[in-house]
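Please check our next protein.
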Amino acid sequence: MSALNNFATHILSSSSKRSLQESRKTQTLSINFSPTFTIQNIPKTPSRISLICPINAVTEDKEAEANQENEKKESNGTEIEEKIKNSFLSILLDKDRFFNASIVLGAGTLAITRLLTIDHEYWHGWTLYEILRYAPEHNWIAYEEALKANPVLAKMAISGIVYSVGDWIAQCYEGKPLLEFDRTRMFRSGLVGFSLHGSLSHYYYQFCEALFPSNDWWVVPAKVAFDQTIWSAIWNSIYFVVLGFLRLESASNIFGELRATFWPMLTAGWKLWPFAHLITYGVIPLEQRLLWVDCVELVWVTILSTYSNEKSEARISEELSEAKSDSSSSKLPED
Protein backbone atom coordinates (compact mmCIF):
# COMPACT_ATOMS: atom_id res chain seq x y z
CA MET A 1 0.00 0.00 0.00
CA SER A 2 2.81 2.30 0.83
CA ALA A 3 4.46 1.38 -2.43
CA LEU A 4 1.38 2.45 -4.33
CA ASN A 5 1.34 5.77 -2.53
CA ASN A 6 4.98 6.40 -3.38
CA PHE A 7 4.41 5.60 -7.02
CA ALA A 8 1.38 7.95 -7.19
CA THR A 9 3.25 10.80 -5.56
CA HIS A 10 6.16 10.26 -7.97
CA ILE A 11 3.84 10.40 -10.95
CA LEU A 12 2.10 13.50 -9.63
CA SER A 13 5.39 15.25 -8.92
CA SER A 14 6.77 14.45 -12.38
CA SER A 15 3.58 15.56 -14.06
CA SER A 16 3.57 18.74 -12.04
CA LYS A 17 7.19 19.41 -13.03
CA ARG A 18 6.29 18.79 -16.65
CA SER A 19 3.31 21.10 -16.42
CA LEU A 20 5.47 23.78 -14.83
CA GLN A 21 8.12 23.41 -17.54
CA GLU A 22 5.46 23.57 -20.27
CA SER A 23 3.87 26.57 -18.63
CA ARG A 24 7.29 28.26 -18.47
CA LYS A 25 7.90 27.43 -22.15
CA THR A 26 4.54 28.81 -23.13
CA GLN A 27 5.21 31.87 -21.02
CA THR A 28 8.61 32.41 -22.64
CA LEU A 29 7.10 31.78 -26.04
CA SER A 30 4.28 34.17 -25.35
CA ILE A 31 6.75 36.71 -24.05
CA ASN A 32 9.06 36.26 -27.04
CA PHE A 33 6.29 36.42 -29.59
CA SER A 34 4.06 38.88 -27.84
CA PRO A 35 3.40 41.96 -30.09
CA THR A 36 4.13 44.44 -27.33
CA PHE A 37 7.60 43.05 -26.78
CA THR A 38 8.50 42.79 -30.44
CA ILE A 39 7.30 46.33 -31.16
CA GLN A 40 9.28 47.70 -28.23
CA ASN A 41 12.43 45.79 -29.06
CA ILE A 42 12.65 45.98 -32.88
CA PRO A 43 16.34 46.42 -33.73
CA LYS A 44 17.65 49.38 -35.74
CA THR A 45 14.36 51.27 -35.58
CA PRO A 46 15.90 54.41 -34.01
CA SER A 47 18.70 54.43 -36.60
CA ARG A 48 16.17 54.28 -39.46
CA ILE A 49 14.23 57.14 -37.96
CA SER A 50 17.44 59.13 -37.51
CA LEU A 51 18.30 58.55 -41.20
CA ILE A 52 14.84 59.52 -42.44
CA CYS A 53 14.79 62.79 -40.51
CA PRO A 54 17.87 64.46 -42.19
CA ILE A 55 16.71 63.24 -45.63
CA ASN A 56 13.37 64.90 -45.09
CA ALA A 57 15.14 68.07 -43.92
CA VAL A 58 17.38 68.13 -47.02
CA THR A 59 14.44 67.67 -49.36
CA GLU A 60 12.54 70.42 -47.57
CA ASP A 61 15.58 72.75 -47.92
CA LYS A 62 15.85 71.96 -51.63
CA GLU A 63 12.19 72.62 -52.14
CA ALA A 64 12.50 75.92 -50.29
CA GLU A 65 15.51 76.93 -52.41
CA ALA A 66 13.66 75.98 -55.59
CA ASN A 67 10.69 78.03 -54.51
CA GLN A 68 12.95 81.00 -53.77
CA GLU A 69 14.62 80.69 -57.16
CA ASN A 70 11.25 80.52 -58.90
CA GLU A 71 10.11 83.58 -56.99
CA LYS A 72 13.31 85.42 -58.01
CA LYS A 73 12.84 84.47 -61.66
CA GLU A 74 9.24 85.58 -61.57
CA SER A 75 10.21 88.88 -59.92
CA ASN A 76 13.02 89.43 -62.45
CA GLY A 77 10.64 88.62 -65.29
CA THR A 78 8.08 91.06 -64.00
CA GLU A 79 10.76 93.73 -63.54
CA ILE A 80 11.96 93.24 -67.13
CA GLU A 81 8.40 93.39 -68.42
CA GLU A 82 7.78 96.56 -66.44
CA LYS A 83 10.98 98.12 -67.81
CA ILE A 84 9.99 97.22 -71.38
CA LYS A 85 6.51 98.62 -70.82
CA ASN A 86 7.90 101.79 -69.26
CA SER A 87 10.41 102.30 -72.07
CA PHE A 88 7.74 101.66 -74.68
CA LEU A 89 5.36 104.07 -72.96
CA SER A 90 8.11 106.67 -72.68
CA ILE A 91 8.77 106.33 -76.41
CA LEU A 92 5.08 106.75 -77.16
CA LEU A 93 4.74 109.75 -74.86
CA ASP A 94 7.91 111.46 -76.09
CA LYS A 95 7.12 112.79 -79.58
CA ASP A 96 10.75 113.15 -80.66
CA ARG A 97 11.69 109.65 -79.60
CA PHE A 98 8.54 108.24 -81.18
CA PHE A 99 9.28 110.00 -84.45
CA ASN A 100 12.92 108.86 -84.38
CA ALA A 101 11.86 105.28 -83.63
CA SER A 102 9.42 105.45 -86.55
CA ILE A 103 12.20 106.63 -88.87
CA VAL A 104 14.59 103.90 -87.77
CA LEU A 105 11.95 101.19 -87.90
CA GLY A 106 10.61 102.32 -91.27
CA ALA A 107 14.03 102.68 -92.90
CA GLY A 108 15.27 99.38 -91.51
CA THR A 109 12.13 97.52 -92.56
CA LEU A 110 12.27 99.01 -96.05
CA ALA A 111 15.95 98.15 -96.50
CA ILE A 112 15.59 94.56 -95.27
CA THR A 113 12.45 94.04 -97.35
CA ARG A 114 14.08 95.34 -100.51
CA LEU A 115 17.19 93.22 -99.96
CA LEU A 116 15.32 90.00 -99.22
CA THR A 117 12.61 90.37 -101.88
CA ILE A 118 14.97 90.96 -104.80
CA ASP A 119 13.77 87.65 -106.33
CA HIS A 120 10.11 87.80 -105.31
CA GLU A 121 9.02 87.27 -108.94
CA TYR A 122 10.75 83.88 -108.98
CA TRP A 123 9.81 82.62 -105.51
CA HIS A 124 7.28 80.06 -106.72
CA GLY A 125 8.38 76.77 -105.15
CA TRP A 126 11.46 78.24 -103.45
CA THR A 127 12.38 77.35 -99.89
CA LEU A 128 13.55 79.84 -97.30
CA TYR A 129 17.09 78.51 -97.68
CA GLU A 130 17.04 79.21 -101.42
CA ILE A 131 15.71 82.74 -100.85
CA LEU A 132 18.48 83.55 -98.36
CA ARG A 133 21.09 81.83 -100.49
CA TYR A 134 20.49 83.78 -103.70
CA ALA A 135 19.61 87.17 -102.16
CA PRO A 136 23.23 88.47 -101.72
CA GLU A 137 24.32 87.40 -105.21
CA HIS A 138 21.28 88.86 -106.94
CA ASN A 139 21.50 92.12 -104.97
CA TRP A 140 25.08 92.48 -106.12
CA ILE A 141 23.98 91.89 -109.73
CA ALA A 142 21.26 94.53 -109.32
CA TYR A 143 23.85 96.99 -107.94
CA GLU A 144 26.15 96.43 -110.90
CA GLU A 145 23.24 96.95 -113.29
CA ALA A 146 22.41 100.22 -111.53
CA LEU A 147 26.03 101.32 -111.90
CA LYS A 148 25.85 100.67 -115.62
CA ALA A 149 22.47 102.37 -116.03
CA ASN A 150 23.12 105.47 -113.88
CA PRO A 151 26.43 105.34 -112.00
CA VAL A 152 26.29 108.85 -110.51
CA LEU A 153 22.81 108.43 -109.01
CA ALA A 154 23.65 105.01 -107.58
CA LYS A 155 26.78 106.36 -105.91
CA MET A 156 24.92 109.41 -104.62
CA ALA A 157 22.30 107.18 -102.97
CA ILE A 158 24.95 105.02 -101.30
CA SER A 159 26.89 108.04 -100.02
CA GLY A 160 23.72 109.67 -98.67
CA ILE A 161 22.84 106.54 -96.69
CA VAL A 162 26.39 106.14 -95.38
CA TYR A 163 26.69 109.77 -94.27
CA SER A 164 23.32 109.65 -92.50
CA VAL A 165 24.18 106.45 -90.63
CA GLY A 166 27.67 107.79 -89.88
CA ASP A 167 26.27 110.92 -88.26
CA TRP A 168 23.86 108.80 -86.22
CA ILE A 169 26.80 106.71 -85.01
CA ALA A 170 28.68 109.93 -84.19
CA GLN A 171 25.78 111.19 -82.07
CA CYS A 172 25.58 107.90 -80.19
CA TYR A 173 29.37 108.03 -79.69
CA GLU A 174 28.99 111.51 -78.20
CA GLY A 175 26.67 110.10 -75.53
CA LYS A 176 23.17 110.57 -76.89
CA PRO A 177 20.69 107.70 -76.44
CA LEU A 178 19.94 105.55 -79.45
CA LEU A 179 16.55 107.10 -80.22
CA GLU A 180 17.29 110.67 -79.13
CA PHE A 181 19.42 111.68 -82.11
CA ASP A 182 19.20 115.09 -83.78
CA ARG A 183 17.21 114.50 -86.97
CA THR A 184 18.17 117.85 -88.49
CA ARG A 185 21.86 117.21 -87.98
CA MET A 186 21.59 113.71 -89.46
CA PHE A 187 19.63 115.08 -92.42
CA ARG A 188 22.32 117.72 -93.07
CA SER A 189 25.07 115.12 -93.10
CA GLY A 190 23.08 112.81 -95.36
CA LEU A 191 22.30 115.69 -97.73
CA VAL A 192 25.98 116.54 -98.06
CA GLY A 193 26.81 112.90 -98.72
CA PHE A 194 24.05 112.52 -101.31
CA SER A 195 24.48 115.77 -103.19
CA LEU A 196 28.25 116.22 -103.06
CA HIS A 197 30.24 113.20 -101.97
CA GLY A 198 28.73 110.62 -104.33
CA SER A 199 28.95 112.75 -107.46
CA LEU A 200 32.33 114.36 -106.72
CA SER A 201 33.90 111.02 -105.78
CA HIS A 202 32.67 109.47 -109.02
CA TYR A 203 34.48 112.08 -111.10
CA TYR A 204 37.49 112.21 -108.80
CA TYR A 205 38.31 108.51 -109.20
CA GLN A 206 38.07 108.84 -112.98
CA PHE A 207 40.37 111.86 -112.85
CA CYS A 208 42.84 109.97 -110.65
CA GLU A 209 42.96 107.10 -113.15
CA ALA A 210 43.61 109.55 -115.97
CA LEU A 211 46.29 111.32 -113.89
CA PHE A 212 48.16 108.07 -113.17
CA PRO A 213 47.51 105.83 -116.20
CA SER A 214 50.51 103.58 -115.68
CA ASN A 215 50.45 100.19 -113.98
CA ASP A 216 53.92 100.40 -112.47
CA TRP A 217 54.60 99.59 -108.85
CA TRP A 218 54.83 103.25 -107.79
CA VAL A 219 51.34 104.16 -109.05
CA VAL A 220 49.42 102.87 -106.03
CA PRO A 221 51.56 104.75 -103.45
CA ALA A 222 51.36 107.87 -105.65
CA LYS A 223 47.56 107.65 -105.79
CA VAL A 224 47.39 107.18 -102.01
CA ALA A 225 49.66 110.20 -101.44
CA PHE A 226 47.61 112.36 -103.84
CA ASP A 227 44.38 111.22 -102.20
CA GLN A 228 45.57 111.96 -98.68
CA THR A 229 46.93 115.42 -99.43
CA ILE A 230 45.08 117.17 -102.26
CA TRP A 231 41.75 115.37 -102.34
CA SER A 232 41.37 114.97 -98.57
CA ALA A 233 42.09 118.65 -97.99
CA ILE A 234 39.52 119.65 -100.63
CA TRP A 235 36.79 117.28 -99.45
CA ASN A 236 37.21 117.97 -95.73
CA SER A 237 36.95 121.70 -96.41
CA ILE A 238 33.84 121.25 -98.58
CA TYR A 239 32.15 119.09 -95.96
CA PHE A 240 32.94 121.48 -93.12
CA VAL A 241 31.91 124.64 -94.98
CA VAL A 242 28.67 123.22 -96.42
CA LEU A 243 27.59 121.90 -93.03
CA GLY A 244 28.28 125.32 -91.53
CA PHE A 245 26.09 127.04 -94.10
CA LEU A 246 23.34 124.46 -93.59
CA ARG A 247 23.45 125.33 -89.88
CA LEU A 248 22.91 128.97 -90.93
CA GLU A 249 26.18 130.13 -89.41
CA SER A 250 28.07 133.20 -90.54
CA ALA A 251 30.98 132.91 -92.98
CA SER A 252 33.45 134.31 -90.45
CA ASN A 253 32.55 131.65 -87.88
CA ILE A 254 32.68 128.86 -90.48
CA PHE A 255 36.10 129.76 -91.83
CA GLY A 256 37.43 130.45 -88.36
CA GLU A 257 36.42 126.97 -87.24
CA LEU A 258 37.82 125.51 -90.48
CA ARG A 259 41.23 127.04 -89.81
CA ALA A 260 41.15 125.60 -86.28
CA THR A 261 40.18 122.07 -87.36
CA PHE A 262 41.78 121.74 -90.80
CA TRP A 263 45.09 120.24 -89.72
CA PRO A 264 43.68 117.95 -86.98
CA MET A 265 41.12 116.51 -89.42
CA LEU A 266 43.74 115.95 -92.10
CA THR A 267 46.17 114.20 -89.77
CA ALA A 268 43.37 112.15 -88.23
CA GLY A 269 42.65 110.76 -91.70
CA TRP A 270 46.25 109.61 -92.04
CA LYS A 271 45.67 107.12 -89.24
CA LEU A 272 43.01 105.33 -91.29
CA TRP A 273 42.94 106.08 -95.01
CA PRO A 274 46.46 105.18 -96.23
CA PHE A 275 45.94 101.56 -95.23
CA ALA A 276 42.41 101.46 -96.66
CA HIS A 277 43.49 103.11 -99.94
CA LEU A 278 46.18 100.51 -100.55
CA ILE A 279 43.20 98.20 -101.12
CA THR A 280 41.20 100.92 -102.91
CA TYR A 281 43.80 101.59 -105.59
CA GLY A 282 45.52 98.23 -105.60
CA VAL A 283 42.67 95.69 -105.53
CA ILE A 284 39.20 97.25 -106.04
CA PRO A 285 38.03 97.94 -109.62
CA LEU A 286 37.25 101.52 -110.62
CA GLU A 287 33.45 101.28 -110.56
CA GLN A 288 33.40 99.51 -107.19
CA ARG A 289 35.78 101.84 -105.35
CA LEU A 290 33.18 104.18 -103.95
CA LEU A 291 31.25 101.30 -102.36
CA TRP A 292 34.41 100.13 -100.58
CA VAL A 293 35.28 103.70 -99.57
CA ASP A 294 31.75 104.28 -98.23
CA CYS A 295 32.04 101.16 -96.07
CA VAL A 296 35.24 102.53 -94.54
CA GLU A 297 33.69 105.99 -94.28
CA LEU A 298 31.22 104.74 -91.68
CA VAL A 299 34.19 105.20 -89.34
CA TRP A 300 35.54 108.35 -91.01
CA VAL A 301 32.20 110.18 -91.15
CA THR A 302 31.88 109.59 -87.43
CA ILE A 303 35.20 111.41 -86.95
CA LEU A 304 34.30 114.21 -89.38
CA SER A 305 30.87 114.79 -87.90
CA THR A 306 32.26 114.77 -84.38
CA TYR A 307 34.91 117.36 -85.28
CA SER A 308 32.45 119.61 -87.08
CA ASN A 309 29.68 119.56 -84.49
CA GLU A 310 31.97 119.77 -81.46
CA LYS A 311 33.42 123.06 -82.71
CA SER A 312 29.98 124.45 -83.49
CA GLU A 313 28.56 123.43 -80.10
CA ALA A 314 31.61 124.81 -78.29
CA ARG A 315 31.23 128.15 -80.09
CA ILE A 316 27.50 128.30 -79.31
CA SER A 317 28.13 127.56 -75.63
CA GLU A 318 30.81 130.26 -75.50
CA GLU A 319 28.44 132.76 -77.06
CA LEU A 320 25.73 131.84 -74.56
CA SER A 321 28.13 132.20 -71.64
CA GLU A 322 29.31 135.58 -72.94
CA ALA A 323 25.72 136.73 -73.38
CA LYS A 324 24.91 135.67 -69.82
CA SER A 325 27.96 137.46 -68.45
CA ASP A 326 27.08 140.62 -70.39
CA SER A 327 23.50 140.53 -69.14
CA SER A 328 24.64 140.01 -65.55
CA SER A 329 27.15 142.86 -65.79
CA SER A 330 24.51 145.17 -67.27
CA LYS A 331 22.23 144.45 -64.31
CA LEU A 332 24.86 145.64 -61.78
CA PRO A 333 24.20 149.14 -60.37
CA GLU A 334 26.41 151.88 -61.76
CA ASP A 335 28.62 153.86 -59.41
Notes: The CA atoms of residues 24 and 282 lie 118 Å apart. Residues 150-320 form one domain. Confidence is low (pLDDT under 50) at residues 1-8, 19-52, 330-335.
